[in-house]
Amino acid sequence: xxxxxxxxxxxxxxxxxxxxxxxxxxxxxxxxxxxxxxxxxxxxxxxxxxxxxxxxxxxxxxxxxxxxxxxxxxxxxxxxxxxxxxxxxxxxxxxxxxxxxxxxxxxxxxxxxxxxxxxxxxxxxxxxxxxxxxxxxxxxxxxxxxxxxxxxxxxxxxxxxxxxxxxxxxxxxxxxxxxxxxxxxxxxxxxxxxxxxxxxxxxxxxxxxxxxxxxxxxxxxxxxxxxxxxxxxxxxxxxxxxxxxxxxxxxxxxxxxxxxxxxxxxxxxxxxxxxxxxx
Length: 279
What we know:
The chain is of the alpha+beta class.
């Protein structure tokens, strides 16, 4: 279930605001539509179910999730996985290389990582995952919310909802269409502070909001990035934004941001780098 409220606009349409918990944070959704409110609420319910289903697949911290089973078993024998989990792991493997190793789902505290491909073997023909060494654990926390937003976008396109805003705890947001005022959906970035108007794009922020908070790893050393700072990235792809914002914040600690961006620019996943701020 979710909570909601609505606001009527002068053009005869309504903006429905809804919110519910998902993936250890709060999801906020705003939909502008001329359809009946119950129809729009049904769409929100379907989005909530979609996110719940994805969380049961990719949540490392749920012992009953598919990913948790892989983490327990894949060092013993190849594990056949669902198509969606295999596709997510394939993306993570590819972008470990594209981000020069600064995005790494196998990174662990105080354990230098040699790179995702050194630990994970994906067999496309069998759709299996195998860990090449014991002690490996996959954590999709820096990827899953962005991938979820991409799935939500595809669903919204199917049901012809073309003016929607979705926020995952303010750090991962998606805007479709021109917003309630017709000039974009206004977002206050965590890194910049000022409003940004989004339209048909994603805005992802990674970093430490206090000097005390340390949660993003530098994969090659296993050290946490220390110090207060943020990086926000606007992209046309949700999962790419998650990967890139995490990688850029990690690379910033090693002064490697320009090299990383040069390496990914030909993939055309970045439409705009908003700002990198060391506060």
